[in-house]
Fold this protein.
Amino acid sequence: MPGRVLSVASECVPLVKTGGLADVVGALPKALAPLGWDMRVLIPAYRGLAAKLGRKTRTVWSDPALFGGPATVEAVEAQGLSLLLLDAPHLYDRPGGPYSDGGHDFPDNPERFAALSWVAASLARGGGTDGWVPDILHAHDWQAGFAPAYLRFGGAAPVKSVITIHNIAFQGHASPERLAALRLPLHEFHAGSLEYYGNLSSLKAGLVHADRITTVSPTYAEELMRPEFGMGLQGVIAARAEVVSGILNGVDTELWDPAAPGQAHPYSVQNRKPKAEARAALLAEFGLGPVEGPLAIVISRLTAQKGIDLIAAAAPEFLAGGGGLVVLGSGDPGLEHAMRGLAAAWPDRVGVKIGYDEALGHRMFAGGDVVLVPSRFEPCGLTQLYGLRYGTLPVVAATGGLADTVVHANTMALAAGTATGLTFHPTDVLALTQTLRRCLALFADRPTWARMQRAAMKSPVGWETSSRTYAALYADLLT
Ligand code: ADP
């Protein structure tokens, strides 16, 4: 039984993005529309956003005093989305990114995103002036965490709520002195509701008060209930295990398509020959010599989470064995230095570009043989999905969404023709070194490698399955 969903978040592709959260928030309405679900997305009207859309908006909600200033909600259809922009200049019309001025987090972030959550709850209760009332409020991450709580504290309402965890590392902590300013009841400041080790946590508020909790892969859903991954919230999540589920993210298979006309060397599962040309072009672009073994690529934030230090340690044996490596990313200065050091030590085999470059990313997926993702934790991960789509086989740590999307080349999977990459555990130098050794051997076995590439390229990495799973979750909430 399809219905109406109000999705509330701080980011949405293609309007504002700092991470994978934005991709999912922007993709879900389009994925769910064919299944009959009417989804609107509420986001803050950051500086310049309304102007960027260049469309006429309709005011559907207003308040002369929202957390210290006047505010309206402007409805607009743009980019294939039904958007609701929360226009509150005292909160959002300022220079910088969504969360910071470029260097420091905005000190009023608790108020800024509590206001977003407050408005979501108000709209969910029928506060909009255009008659559109959702059946479900879907909150994303800590920025929307108070929305299910406000809904609950406001008394009985026929609206159900879902919260999705995209990254448990950000929990929306604030001092309890802000309780009243955030329009939260003082008596809810206890460990069973809003309190988290003496502070407020908006993410915890959402996890306690939403009807359902989801995260972005089934394995991460289980990991989150364990101390190694739950970052202090494992007990809260485990206590609600019966309403927790993991639903994988999909990728935009039009944007990430090795056969797309825009590609210099388009190839498909039936005709993979041009992939060799893309590989040669990538080697030439980085000024590398011939690489007889597998050409590995890394496209990533260069951080400890992503296991980049493990690559620095494990690469020399792989390179000496005939492999090559091309790295694109930026982040931790020490890790950037380590990657540059590899390139200096292996000038014919290692290319490194420090920076962010979407077009180069596409060329790397087209030209690479394997994509390395040795993450210490990975809620879902997108790069392994792009790798599958491009026949660039993922070599990944067996954690979170990586474990759920890559079929390890064990004996049975190889025999069945289902293997699509290599997974390893634990996430340490020894396991990565051993797996890269295995990768060299597999690559030398050309028929087996080709079979794995075909299986990888046929993997269902789009939104088809997950959109049905979200739809089933919503439908279940409404029965
Ligand atoms: P996370 O969101 O934790 O950074 P994901 O794998 O979910 O990791 O998403 C990262 C996205 O950003 C992918 O689309 C990846 O291709 C892209 N990306 C990361 N670093 C770069 C870079 N330096 N240049 C181009 N794209 C990048």
In short: The pocket of adenosine-5'-diphosphate is lined by residues 19-20, 299-301, 328-330, 356-358, 361, 381-383 (CB under 6 Å). The CA atoms of residues 189 and 195 lie 5 Å apart.
